Amino acid sequence: MISLAAGTVRDAGPAQVLQAASTAGYDAAGLRLDPASVSLAEAARLRRRADDSGLTVLDVEVVRLRPDSHLDDQRRLLDLAGMLGARFLLTVSEHRDEGATAADLTRLHEAARGHSTRIALEFMRFTGVPTLAAALALLDGNGLADAVVVVDALHLHRAGEPPEDLAAVPAERIGYVQLCDAPAHPPRGLDALSWEARHDRLAPGEGELPLGRLLAQVGPAVPLSVEVQSDRLTARSAPVARAGRLLADTRRVLASAAGPGRSTV
């Protein structure tokens, strides 16, 4: 399964994201929703649109764990994700304290009990969960059996963790993989890393990330989300054209890394 990440077409609303994904030929899409402004009725309409287009909603974004966040808002986003049939609710931590992250994540995990949508924790060097190892320790150390980790190719590399580290991770702990590309060497400083991740990613195959090695470590059943947040590409192309170009780039990377069972379509 190849999904169009919401951040790749951040200049499009949820309905336009689904249109871009369907027109370009993706299997799925991710949606970024504001629980304060999107109703359950609107989520139901989006679900029908996705179903009519043959699309799965892979993930809904984003829960930000931080001192001023509220569980009620997170529950509303969970309800929206459930209405959409989303597989995952993308979650990041902005806490500086590991204990606060663990407490908030545990509460969210409990709130998701009984939902079909699973909590997907994303690690990033510039957040409260900086590495794959830290993310796994949080989930395992707090008994969060139903939660998974999101593996972003950029964040894994910037954390200094080689793709081969994934060999020791139980398959059920990896929810999905986010694909993009970047130069091998990182910019200096956490602020620069944050800017790169949100504004300056490269298309798969344009940079020097070890994407082939990453794909070799995850099974063919693991969904791939094309997340290329790029000011340059956003300025140069409309959402549908951008989505199509990036899907073609992704398929070329998959073809070059193809092994038994890994489809390029």
From TrEMBL:
Q: Name one GO molecular function term.
A: isomerase activity
Task: Mention any Pfam family matching this sequence.
Answer: AP_endonuc_2
Isomerase recorded as keyword: yes
- Tell me where in this chain the Xylose isomerase-like TIM barrel domain is found: 18-236
InterPro entries (alphabetical): IolE/XylAMocC-like, Xyl_isomerase-like_sf, Xyl_isomerase-like_TIM-brl
Keywords attached to this Swiss-Prot or TrEMBL record, sorted alphabetically, are:
Isomerase
Which residue spans adopt a coiled-coil conformation according to this UniProt entry?
none
Tell me the first and last residues of the signal peptide: none
Q: Which SUPFAM superfamilies did the record assign?
A: Xylose isomerase-like
The cross-references to PANTHER family, in alphabetical order and at most eight, read: BLL3656 PROTEIN, HYDROXYPYRUVATE ISOMERASE
- UniProt-recorded name of the protein: Xylose isomerase
Q: Which organism is it from?
A: Nonomuraea cavernae
